[in-house]
């Protein structure tokens, strides 16, 4: 790779972390087969691989070697009937193939126990470890592994300590059609096909046992089986959904209760795993991701990869849990109990003689009271301490963890399966305190997410992805550039003669010239063997000094503070930009008080004038290129500034100023005209007096102001519209509505009446600002035979067609037409003598024209309805409820009108509304009340 490109890549450390990437030493693949399970036997040098449709046995020292004795492949097909049934149930063809879920050794590693998904059904096989042939007939068994590959399940094969020492399996699993049942399960124990002991499980309907657990591991230790998982904590404050990591313990010989707890664990207890950074407010790592076990001379350690809850800033760390401390808590700790104040520790004297979690030879002999106490006391009050978290790291999730135990230390390997980054850490005990030190961090060149990992102690690490199996050496000694770094790597030794780091061998510890140490002892031997790396550069150059994580850069005894010319990237590499002669000197990287890397940097400008070497000539050329680029940049900026100056000069020349001035003057004139018109309009509005409004004395005082405001609004609108009932703006707003033609019909009929009366007698012309009621009452003075209720109803319907809070209903339009027909008949028949006097009465053609306009089935009415939105017939009546109600004005609403008796027929059904078409009886009580209530709102100018 071009060093300049590498340097630029590392400069983007804030966006992409620049990590040294290792290629696999060997790879094995038979295509993208979803390699999901790895099982390693160091004694037979075999690596067993579970994939889709196949099982493999590979040689651990070279997984790519397919020699007959070192390589075995077993193809496991699915019958056509099972495949067809599986696909018909909605699964894909790949999901229905054989796919391993869990593999474990049994019979002293002579056999392999395999639980797999076959046609989305769990199938159990026992295979010969060498040939991968079946040693038993395959069988379908629910509860061992999950057909769904996304379910976090775990299992462990236990060959000792079970009832009658049967070999069986313990599993943490989800069952049910939707995976709603969460169990820790042991299948029934049988011999020669006869069931001897029934299956055992937790109570899946009680969330105090397991509350949506995600299992990560199970281990057989002594007379117990331990399960590690995370779940929703039920002991937290009500309403909080907090995840806690747990360890649960059960006794192998547990066979459940006799009457109570039949087929249910009587020895189940669980406790929280505490992995946190101590502070006034502890920082918890509550999500366990992976777990592994290490047996030491006096204890067993469980190394767990933990992370924070699912947030935008996830942080991961490693915590080590001691088996002794776990058993101490389960055997002697306090239990949690519920109380009105919440979850509280139960007093020690309240625990019965048979303590929950205690193993007994015969669990069915336990009393019902002991079992009930155990059922209600499953959780320990105190958590299991995890010590000081190892290497808390942001923005990563340690999805896998492996440990290579050494005499003085445990070497921990943590892998982020998504980013493929691997950390190697030394963990050791100093007196009573555990310490750790980062050895190295590298990237692995993999194509997809890591599904499984395995380790051959002291030799290789293996990863399984969807595409291949990869093999990496545990030692990457060529990366260590100093003795201090090389010597503490448990897989490397420093050659003092050649000043290089090589893979460690057993003979190096006793050979002269080789320096081997470990993190706990340090690299004191490297004081005289440390190599100072010489670096030479020229003014203007950029340089990268390789470092390691966890160290501090210094020069001239002072710590380097990052700035725009001295950058420290995410891998602690020092990047120097635009070097000058003053940057010459010694640069050291210290870690744990020791200098682990030392550089001597020489920056000489003497050769720049007359370069004597190729490197000096290239440096001079780069410096000249930089200056040339700077000159070009300055020339370009000057040219752009000159163009902008010329453009401004062109803008402000003579003709341009004249055109711009003329345009601005025209705009100002137009604005002046508009402002003048607005001022005139405002003056006219200010001098216009609103019509007087008279209300009946029976109107309540509390509602009087409200009615006056509504009536004034009606009068103001009437003064603006004058005789018109609708205007263009109103029609535009309601354009396309099915009822818009009703508004037009009311307007035409009303105008025809006004024109008719004006032609009959000019004194009957409608006055400006005169309400409909006042106008018709003036006509009634000339024709006393006109019914007062008829006049009031016509005025009310006409006004509500014009000023309404909702649409003008079809029933009201029909009612208005009926009343207008009666009015015309009265005017043309009964009013001839009193109205016309000596004048010639109007022709019958005019009356016929009026009648034709208001009749619903006339030809002109049909043409008008077609033009304005359809028919007034049965279709509109049936669709009345579906018509959109768009209020025109928030003036007297239907609610306010109905409160004073003005819209009694608004919500009448079609059957009820037909009664309104009949001419109201002058002497009826209801007619009088209707007249009184309408008069209160429609009085208007009639009081004058």
From TrEMBL:
Biased composition regions of type Polar residues, renumbered to the chain: 899-916
Keyword Transferase tagged: no
Domain of life of the native organism: Eukaryota
Name this protein carries in UniProt: Sema domain-containing protein
A Pfam family the protein falls into: Sema
BP GO annotations: axon guidance; positive regulation of cell migration; semaphorin-plexin signaling pathway
Cellular component aspect of the GO annotation: plasma membrane
Source species: Diploscapter pachys
Keywords: Membrane, Signal, Transmembrane, Transmembrane helix
Signal peptide limits: 1-18
SUPFAM superfamilies found in the cross-reference section: Sema domain
InterPro entries per UniProt: C1orf43 (IPR010876), Semap_dom (IPR001627), Semap_dom_sf (IPR036352), Semaphorin (IPR027231), WD40/YVTN_repeat-like_dom_sf (IPR015943)
Boundaries of every Sema domain copy: 8-474
Gene Ontology MF term list: chemorepellent activity; semaphorin receptor binding
Bilayer-crossing regions: 657-675
Annotated region described as Disordered, given as residue ranges: 899-944
